[in-house]
Amino acid sequence: MLISQTIMPSQKQRRESTRARIIEVAKNVFARDGYAKASLAEIVNEAGVTTGAIYHHFGDKKGLFVAVAEYLEQQIVVESGAIPNTSKSIWQRFENNILKTLEICAREDIQRIVFRDAPTVVGFYEWKEIEIKYGFGQLQNAISKLSKEGLIETSDPDLTAHVLLGAIMQAAHYTAMSKNKKKALKESQDTLRKILRSIRIRTNKN
Q1: What superfamily in CATH does domain 69-198 come from?
Q2: pTM for this predicted structure
Protein backbone atom coordinates (compact mmCIF):
# COMPACT_ATOMS: atom_id res chain seq x y z
CA MET A 1 0.00 0.00 0.00
CA LEU A 2 1.32 3.41 -0.98
CA ILE A 3 1.36 6.00 1.75
CA SER A 4 0.78 9.55 0.56
CA GLN A 5 3.28 11.98 2.01
CA THR A 6 2.79 15.71 2.08
CA ILE A 7 6.00 17.52 1.30
CA MET A 8 6.16 20.52 3.55
CA PRO A 9 7.80 23.65 2.14
CA SER A 10 11.19 24.44 3.63
CA GLN A 11 11.81 27.55 5.72
CA LYS A 12 13.59 29.12 2.75
CA GLN A 13 10.63 28.42 0.47
CA ARG A 14 8.23 29.94 3.00
CA ARG A 15 10.39 33.05 3.27
CA GLU A 16 10.57 33.40 -0.52
CA SER A 17 6.81 32.88 -0.83
CA THR A 18 6.09 35.52 1.82
CA ARG A 19 8.50 37.97 0.22
CA ALA A 20 6.97 37.44 -3.24
CA ARG A 21 3.44 37.94 -1.86
CA ILE A 22 4.42 41.19 -0.14
CA ILE A 23 6.06 42.50 -3.33
CA GLU A 24 3.01 41.67 -5.45
CA VAL A 25 0.63 43.43 -3.05
CA ALA A 26 2.97 46.38 -2.61
CA LYS A 27 3.33 46.72 -6.39
CA ASN A 28 -0.42 47.17 -6.75
CA VAL A 29 -0.62 49.70 -3.89
CA PHE A 30 2.41 51.72 -5.06
CA ALA A 31 1.10 51.74 -8.64
CA ARG A 32 -2.33 52.93 -7.55
CA ASP A 33 -1.41 55.46 -4.85
CA GLY A 34 2.23 56.38 -5.52
CA TYR A 35 5.01 56.03 -2.98
CA ALA A 36 4.13 59.05 -0.84
CA LYS A 37 0.48 58.09 -0.30
CA ALA A 38 0.92 54.32 -0.19
CA SER A 39 -0.12 52.88 3.17
CA LEU A 40 2.20 50.33 4.76
CA ALA A 41 -0.70 49.22 6.95
CA GLU A 42 -2.79 48.44 3.86
CA ILE A 43 0.06 46.44 2.33
CA VAL A 44 0.44 44.47 5.57
CA ASN A 45 -3.29 43.79 5.72
CA GLU A 46 -3.68 42.74 2.07
CA ALA A 47 -0.57 40.55 2.13
CA GLY A 48 -1.74 38.86 5.33
CA VAL A 49 1.54 39.46 7.15
CA THR A 50 2.73 41.42 10.18
CA THR A 51 4.50 44.76 10.10
CA GLY A 52 7.48 42.90 11.49
CA ALA A 53 7.61 40.79 8.33
CA ILE A 54 7.94 43.95 6.22
CA TYR A 55 10.84 45.19 8.32
CA HIS A 56 12.43 41.74 8.40
CA HIS A 57 12.41 41.32 4.61
CA PHE A 58 12.84 44.91 3.43
CA GLY A 59 13.97 47.10 6.33
CA ASP A 60 11.38 49.85 5.85
CA LYS A 61 8.88 51.31 3.38
CA LYS A 62 11.64 52.64 1.13
CA GLY A 63 13.38 49.26 1.13
CA LEU A 64 10.11 47.63 0.09
CA PHE A 65 9.64 50.18 -2.69
CA VAL A 66 13.16 49.55 -4.02
CA ALA A 67 12.47 45.80 -4.03
CA VAL A 68 9.24 46.37 -5.99
CA ALA A 69 10.96 48.70 -8.48
CA GLU A 70 13.80 46.22 -9.01
CA TYR A 71 11.26 43.43 -9.47
CA LEU A 72 9.58 45.46 -12.23
CA GLU A 73 12.94 46.12 -13.88
CA GLN A 74 13.50 42.36 -13.92
CA GLN A 75 10.02 41.81 -15.38
CA ILE A 76 10.70 44.24 -18.22
CA VAL A 77 13.78 42.21 -19.15
CA VAL A 78 12.00 38.85 -18.79
CA GLU A 79 8.84 39.83 -20.68
CA SER A 80 10.61 41.63 -23.52
CA GLY A 81 12.91 38.63 -23.98
CA ALA A 82 10.09 36.09 -23.88
CA ILE A 83 8.31 37.17 -27.07
CA PRO A 84 8.07 34.46 -29.77
CA ASN A 85 10.74 35.29 -32.30
CA THR A 86 11.36 33.01 -35.24
CA SER A 87 13.42 35.51 -37.18
CA LYS A 88 17.01 34.51 -37.88
CA SER A 89 17.96 38.14 -38.38
CA ILE A 90 20.06 39.58 -35.55
CA TRP A 91 18.66 43.01 -36.27
CA GLN A 92 15.02 41.89 -36.36
CA ARG A 93 15.36 40.19 -32.99
CA PHE A 94 16.85 43.38 -31.55
CA GLU A 95 14.13 45.56 -33.07
CA ASN A 96 11.32 43.29 -31.87
CA ASN A 97 12.77 43.31 -28.36
CA ILE A 98 12.91 47.13 -28.32
CA LEU A 99 9.32 47.49 -29.57
CA LYS A 100 8.09 45.02 -26.95
CA THR A 101 10.00 46.92 -24.27
CA LEU A 102 8.15 50.08 -25.32
CA GLU A 103 4.82 48.30 -24.96
CA ILE A 104 5.70 47.02 -21.47
CA CYS A 105 7.02 50.40 -20.32
CA ALA A 106 3.71 52.04 -21.23
CA ARG A 107 1.92 50.02 -18.54
CA GLU A 108 0.57 52.10 -15.66
CA ASP A 109 2.44 50.21 -12.93
CA ILE A 110 5.78 50.60 -14.76
CA GLN A 111 5.10 54.27 -15.47
CA ARG A 112 4.20 55.15 -11.88
CA ILE A 113 6.80 53.09 -10.04
CA VAL A 114 9.82 52.83 -12.34
CA PHE A 115 9.74 56.11 -14.23
CA ARG A 116 7.96 58.59 -11.93
CA ASP A 117 8.65 57.57 -8.35
CA ALA A 118 11.87 55.53 -8.41
CA PRO A 119 14.29 58.32 -9.45
CA THR A 120 12.88 60.55 -6.69
CA VAL A 121 12.52 57.98 -3.92
CA VAL A 122 15.77 56.13 -4.57
CA GLY A 123 17.77 59.07 -5.93
CA PHE A 124 18.49 59.80 -9.58
CA TYR A 125 22.06 58.49 -9.70
CA GLU A 126 21.36 55.61 -7.31
CA TRP A 127 18.46 54.52 -9.50
CA LYS A 128 20.62 54.75 -12.63
CA GLU A 129 23.03 52.27 -11.02
CA ILE A 130 20.13 49.88 -10.48
CA GLU A 131 18.91 50.33 -14.07
CA ILE A 132 22.36 49.38 -15.36
CA LYS A 133 21.92 45.95 -13.79
CA TYR A 134 18.71 45.32 -15.72
CA GLY A 135 17.10 46.80 -18.86
CA PHE A 136 19.53 49.63 -19.53
CA GLY A 137 22.51 47.36 -18.96
CA GLN A 138 21.13 44.87 -21.46
CA LEU A 139 20.50 47.66 -23.96
CA GLN A 140 24.10 48.84 -23.60
CA ASN A 141 25.37 45.32 -24.18
CA ALA A 142 23.11 44.78 -27.20
CA ILE A 143 24.15 48.01 -28.90
CA SER A 144 27.82 47.35 -28.16
CA LYS A 145 27.48 43.89 -29.72
CA LEU A 146 25.63 45.21 -32.77
CA SER A 147 28.30 47.88 -33.19
CA LYS A 148 31.06 45.27 -33.14
CA GLU A 149 29.07 43.20 -35.65
CA GLY A 150 28.93 46.23 -37.95
CA LEU A 151 25.15 46.48 -37.76
CA ILE A 152 24.81 49.86 -36.06
CA GLU A 153 26.45 53.12 -37.01
CA THR A 154 27.73 54.67 -33.78
CA SER A 155 30.98 56.11 -32.48
CA ASP A 156 29.83 55.73 -28.87
CA PRO A 157 27.61 52.71 -28.04
CA ASP A 158 26.97 53.93 -24.48
CA LEU A 159 25.73 57.32 -25.69
CA THR A 160 23.55 55.61 -28.30
CA ALA A 161 22.07 53.42 -25.55
CA HIS A 162 21.27 56.51 -23.45
CA VAL A 163 19.61 58.28 -26.39
CA LEU A 164 17.64 55.19 -27.37
CA LEU A 165 16.50 54.60 -23.79
CA GLY A 166 15.31 58.21 -23.67
CA ALA A 167 13.32 57.66 -26.87
CA ILE A 168 11.74 54.50 -25.45
CA MET A 169 10.81 56.26 -22.20
CA GLN A 170 9.30 59.31 -23.91
CA ALA A 171 7.36 57.14 -26.37
CA ALA A 172 6.09 55.08 -23.42
CA HIS A 173 5.02 58.25 -21.58
CA TYR A 174 3.19 59.47 -24.69
CA THR A 175 1.40 56.14 -25.04
CA ALA A 176 0.47 55.93 -21.37
CA MET A 177 -1.02 59.46 -21.33
CA SER A 178 -2.96 59.05 -24.57
CA LYS A 179 -6.74 58.58 -24.52
CA ASN A 180 -6.43 56.11 -27.39
CA LYS A 181 -3.60 53.92 -26.11
CA LYS A 182 -3.86 51.34 -28.89
CA LYS A 183 -3.41 53.98 -31.58
CA ALA A 184 -0.71 55.78 -29.60
CA LEU A 185 1.24 52.55 -29.10
CA LYS A 186 1.21 51.82 -32.83
CA GLU A 187 2.33 55.37 -33.66
CA SER A 188 5.06 55.20 -31.01
CA GLN A 189 6.33 51.86 -32.27
CA ASP A 190 6.35 53.12 -35.87
CA THR A 191 8.34 56.19 -34.83
CA LEU A 192 10.77 54.16 -32.75
CA ARG A 193 11.23 51.73 -35.62
CA LYS A 194 12.24 54.65 -37.88
CA ILE A 195 14.74 55.86 -35.27
CA LEU A 196 16.25 52.40 -35.00
CA ARG A 197 16.55 51.99 -38.74
CA SER A 198 18.23 55.38 -39.07
CA ILE A 199 21.30 53.99 -37.27
CA ARG A 200 21.17 50.58 -38.94
CA ILE A 201 23.88 49.50 -41.33
CA ARG A 202 22.50 47.02 -43.83
CA THR A 203 24.65 43.96 -44.43
CA ASN A 204 24.09 40.35 -45.42
CA LYS A 205 24.03 39.55 -41.66
CA ASN A 206 20.70 41.32 -41.11
Answers
A1: Tetracycline Repressor, domain 2 (1.10.357.10)
A2: 0.83
